[in-house]
Amino acid sequence: MSAQDQLVTWALERFGPRAVVTDRDAIDPWVHDWRGRYHGAAPAILQPDSTEAVSAMVARAAAADVALVPQGGNTSMVGGATPPADGSTLILSLRRMNRIRALSSDDNLVTAEAGVILQTLQETAAARKRRFPLDLGARGSATVGGLVSTNAGGTQVLRFGTMRGLVAGIEAVLPDGSVHDGLSPLKKDNRGYDLNQLLIGAEGTIGVVTAANLRLVPAIESRAVAWVGLDSPMAALDLLRRMEARSTMIESFEIIPGDSLSLVLKHIPDTRAPLASEHAWHVLIEVVRTDGRGQEPQAVLEESLADALETGLITDAALAQNEGQADDFWKLRHSLSEAERASGPAVQHDISVPVSAMPRFMLDAAAAAEAKFPGTRATAFGHLGDGNVHFHVRAAEGTDAERFYADEAEPISRFVNDLVTAADGSISAEHGIGQMKLEELERLGQPARLAALRAIKAAFDPHERFNPGKLVTLAPKPRRP
Amino acid sequence: MSAQDQLVTWALERFGPRAVVTDRDAIDPWVHDWRGRYHGAAPAILQPDSTEAVSAMVARAAAADVALVPQGGNTSMVGGATPPADGSTLILSLRRMNRIRALSSDDNLVTAEAGVILQTLQETAAARKRRFPLDLGARGSATVGGLVSTNAGGTQVLRFGTMRGLVAGIEAVLPDGSVHDGLSPLKKDNRGYDLNQLLIGAEGTIGVVTAANLRLVPAIESRAVAWVGLDSPMAALDLLRRMEARSTMIESFEIIPGDSLSLVLKHIPDTRAPLASEHAWHVLIEVVRTDGRGQEPQAVLEESLADALETGLITDAALAQNEGQADDFWKLRHSLSEAERASGPAVQHDISVPVSAMPRFMLDAAAAAEAKFPGTRATAFGHLGDGNVHFHVRAAEGTDAERFYADEAEPISRFVNDLVTAADGSISAEHGIGQMKLEELERLGQPARLAALRAIKAAFDPHERFNPGKLVTLAPKPRRP
Questions:
Q1: Are residues B328 and B281 in the same domain?
Q2: Between B107, B425, B460, which is nearest A186 by CB?
Q3: Structural domain count, chain A
Q4: What percent of chain A has pLDDT over 90?
Q5: Sign of CA dihedral B32, B38, B446, A60
Q6: B186, B202, B431 member nearest A193 (Cβ)
Q7: Which of A396, B319, B418, B463 shows the greatest Cβ crowding within 10 Å of its Cβ?
Q8: Hey, how many other C-beta atoms are within 10 angstroms of the C-beta on A34?
């Protein structure tokens, strides 16, 4: 009997049938990534329902030299939770660990287990008149463990930051099965290297997060949403800066090129342009009020946009007149990817550069990519205030999708990643490295940084038993940083 | 010639006489900690003035197996920058690296080299109508490199956090001399383990910080300061919570026991009680306004305190009527340690527990310590909103200081640290581990966490050449986490 089979048998005996899945059909949805790009295999899924069970399974797996792929909602954009195709790993699913252990609205803290789904977390907070201020498209599937392990972002990062800014504590099982209990929400704690910070964004490669203590913020009382037309990303950043000087309540500030809006209007039913005239660029702004004090969001937007119109910074603007209209504006933003998919093949990049450099980068990089790959159209949209845009290069019209992805995707991505790196930016702003960006990270990372990543991986998981083949690999042979 | 001497000779030849100090009198101030508790020795100080020079010196030291103690302003409270007494290390001073490389008031960012002194940084920001919102007593000596490496806190952490919340980027030289350039201020960057986060609070044991990109905030337009008398720490936390629900502009919220105030009034000239009546507890509150919008700080305080008086939450309150009075209130707070020193020997603890647990902890721990060590008086004061108080146990009246420190200090500290650990708190909230708390960290740390600290140290600095004997040591033999 293989070491994997022995482990599965042991887990069945010790934790019962709910703790182990061996049925092929039941396993199948979890060995492919949701975009259908990565196809793995695993003979079984381990499904512990407590930290103690995770600890016992991991210790047993370590002793038996069985590698594990930690998995939450399996919504990775970079193949980060898909096991290797050779069946050499078991999946360690955290989905059964889905309890809210504690919620204190006085302390604005919630302790959620790794398997709690984002939407459930949001609803739990809302029921207590609080808000968990992180949101993304996969909210119905993504889990707390995955959100922490990928330092997830989304459309609401402007005020409260990414997951790193929302984590007050972490509990994790390390590759030898030992438990790191860092849940205590200490605002000041200087007892050496911050293990919690190290686990955030580590993609399950040096520990598996079993629970997190997360910050809550006051619930939104009212919001105002505007759609703005303007000439350039520079004008958009200027507008953001002016609004930030006026109000601390800017919740979202999304930039959208005119070209991308056209695709939405063309391909997505029941959409219409918020502005009568055409514009090279648009921004979608949401301002909120949470504490019954300070200016009304509607007034903040009205005053800011009136000033901006008067000085010629923007060319047109529409304020949503009601919640329905606000949702319509947001639907345009959320439909960008779908519209693009409907219009033909594209290579997508999730990149960031310093905020101040982003407007120029959007224009220059798009021009450079289109010049280098004739016939393509390059567009950037997303979270301007975070310096994070999704930079997409669409195939020339009529290009065969298969041929495009086979021949052009890689050179285009390398070209874009070179530009980002030259601009002191990141080739992965939100999505992580997973297996998709591993080669590019190795190609473009600073030697000192790559050596440090390998040294950290080797320190925690020298036998590469935790999420092997993701984020960092120990070959080429680790050099000490 | 010893390896140290060879390195010194090489540095002199390559970088000139300003880069090396070998004069004993010039070295002397830097081998003792400022409180006179730790006395080390070093045959020379290396003083590079550029990142390249740091890199070259560290690489050469690594090749020659010479250990280095990175040093900034030498203001550690835990002997973190004092070399060992056997002269086995050279000091690597970053004080000559004192340039402000860049400051953008649009971006609210400043890139400062490691040797920039905190007060200089504050003044540089103020000259551009911005503020660097971290302050502490050693502002005239403490340097950026040390502040980052100790994740410094202070009295203004409530709104903007410790250094961790203010660092947008880090440049550091790793123990092999390679340079980590993580200065780019990316708000979203998910390229694996966050090396910047790992270096914050690492006390120079895995890398020496050479520069940091730091966040600035708007300058303060106006402030209001109040002194409040109340019955208990629980009432104080309740008041803080109510004020936080009302305003986001609470800059400081310091708790002071009546007993400690009495010592100040007794021992410090030109001080007087802000309130006519006596109170068991006091809080000092500062509310600020920065952006010309929102409520006047005075009004926030008046309304909050009027409500609190009416409901009986507090028993008395005085608002500073002018800046002079505000300074007088703050002088009382800043004189607490001096007054205590004047009144006799005391053992001090810099501890934190979760904010919600702090009021109860302050009372219970003080009672427990006084019961366990008859005749002592235990008091706690400090930053209630951060869960961080300075917990001092004073000797019984008439106790001989030397005897007290020799016989009682250690048992008292162990007792207090046991209580903190049992409350899921930290034995070092602000000051770090250095050499002072090394044994207690080893005694009280979770096994998984201690193993992780050692594994990280071994990954970056297996020969313990960076700040040896501080924060973590590799003996007992590292176990993999």
A1: yes
A2: B425
A3: 5
A4: 87
A5: positive
A6: B202
A7: B319
A8: 16
Question: Which of B156, B162, B193 should we substitute to test contact with A (largest number of A Cβ atoms within 10 Å)?
Answer: B193
B332 and B351 inside one domain: no
A191 part of contact set with chain B, CB < 8 Å:
yes
Is B193:B242 a contact under the CB 8 Å cutoff?
no
Please identify, among B292, B309, B336, the residue that sits at the C-terminal boundary of a domain.
B336
* ipTM of this predicted structure: 0.95
pLDDT at A237 > cutoff 90: yes
Contacts of A241 in chain B (CB under 8 A): 106
Nearest chain A residue to B437, by CA? A191
Q: Which residues pair with B378 in a beta bridge?
A: B393
Distance CA B279, CA B261 (A): 10
CATH of the domain at A286: 3.30.70.2190
Residues of B within 8 A of A221 (CB-CB) are none
Determine whether the interchain pair B459/A456 forms a contact, defined as Cβ–Cβ distance below 8 Å: yes
A328 in the same domain as A246: yes
Q: Which residue shows structure tokens 């970053």? A: B94
CB contact under 8 A, B193 and A480: no
> Could you give the angle at which helices A297-310 and A233-246 cross, rounded to 10 degrees?
130
Place of tokens 């050449």: B465
Q: Are residues A193 and A109 in the same domain?
A: yes
Asked whether the beta carbons of B289 and B218 are under 8 A apart, the reply is: no
For residue A375, the tally of other CB atoms under 10 A from its CB is: 12
**Any B CB within 8 A of A6 CB:** no
Reported confidence tier of residue B397, pLDDT bands at 50, 70, 90: confident
Is the CB of A293 less than 8 angstroms away from the CB of B294? yes
Q: Are strands A208-215 and A167-173 parallel, antiparallel or unpaired?
A: antiparallel
Q: Using CB atoms, which residue from A164, A178, A445 is nearest to B481?
A: A178
Say what the pLDDT of residue B343 is. 87
| pLDDT tens-digit readout, A447-456 | 999 999 999 9
Tell me the pLDDT band of B347, cut-offs 50, 70 and 90.
Answer: very high
pLDDT score, position B476: 55
Which chain B residue lies closest to A219 (C-alpha atoms)?
Answer: B245
Which tokens hold the place of B363? 């009372």
Q: Does A296 touch chain B if contact means CB atoms closer than 8 Å?
A: no
Please report the number of interchain residue pairs, chain A to chain B, with beta-carbon separation below 8 angstroms. Answer: 257
Comparing CB atoms, the residue among A178, A182, A448 nearest residue B451 is A178
| A357 has a chain B CB within 8 A of its CB | no
Q: How far apart are CA A133 and CA A215, in angstroms?
A: 9
The minimal CB distance from A178 to the residues B203, B354, B447 is found for: B447
Residues B69 and B128 in one domain: no
- Residue range A170-206, pLDDT digits in tens: 999 999 999 999 999 999 999 999 999 999 999 999 9
Residues 6+ apart with CB under 8 A from B447: A178
Is the CB of A184 less than 8 angstroms away from the CB of B104?
no
Residue spans of beta strands (DSSP E) within A65-174: 67-71, 89-93, 100-104, 109-113, 130-131, 167-173
Taking the CA of residue A329 and the nearest CA in chain B, the distance in Å comes to: 25
Which of A386, A447, A471 minimises the CB distance to B187?
Answer: A386
Number of other CB atoms surrounding residue B345 within 10 Å = 19
* Domain-ending residue, one of B306, B336, B366: B336
Say yes or no: A290 and A354 in one domain.
Answer: no
Among residues 384-403 of chain A, which lie with CB inside 8 Å of chain B?
385-388
- For A472, the domain range is 445-481
